[in-house]
Specification:
Distance between the termini: 15 Å
Strand order of the largest sheet: 1-2
Number of strands: 4
Strand content: 15-25%
Number of domains: 2
Pfam families: Ras
CATH architecture of the largest domain: 3-Layer(aba) Sandwich
Shape: globular
CATH superfamily of the largest domain: P-loop containing nucleotide triphosphate hydrolases
CATH topology of the largest domain: Rossmann fold
GO molecular function, one term: GTP binding
Number of helices: 2
Keywords: GTP-binding, Nucleotide-binding
InterPro entries: P-loop_NTPase, Rab, Small_GTPase
Protein name: Ras-related protein rab-18-like protein
């Protein structure tokens, strides 16, 4: 995002995953320190047990709502457009692709 995004009001969130594991590669304090250094939200979660997953989305949405420039009508035509994959084009496993407008 730092390389390609020209906006200064984007919301970044670092999610520390696999909190269900006993031996973690990165501890909570290290993740929090990294997130603070890079002005990111930080939350821990487990995709396996779903702990913290809902909270991560709720926190992200709340922060986006608190940042009017991200959702005001003047920005309606900016962002990412999701479309169905056309034959001959690349795409993810879900059958769609993203194109930046």
């Amino acid at each position: 995002l730092e390389t390609y995004c020209t906006r200064n009001d984007i919301v970044n969130m670092l999610v520390g995953n696999k909190i269900d594991k006993e031996n973690r590669e990165v501890d909570r304090n290290e993740g929090l320190k990294f997130a603070r250094k890079h002005s990111m939200l930080f939350i821990e979660a487990s995709a396996k047990t779903c702990d913290g997953v809902q909270c991560a989305f709720e926190e992200l949405v709340e922060k986006i709502i608190q940042t009017p420039g991200l959702w005001e009508s003047e920005n309606q035509n900016k962002g990412v457009k999701l479309s169905h994959r056309e034959e001959g084009h690349g795409g993810g496993a879900c059958g769609g692709y993203c194109s930046v407008l």
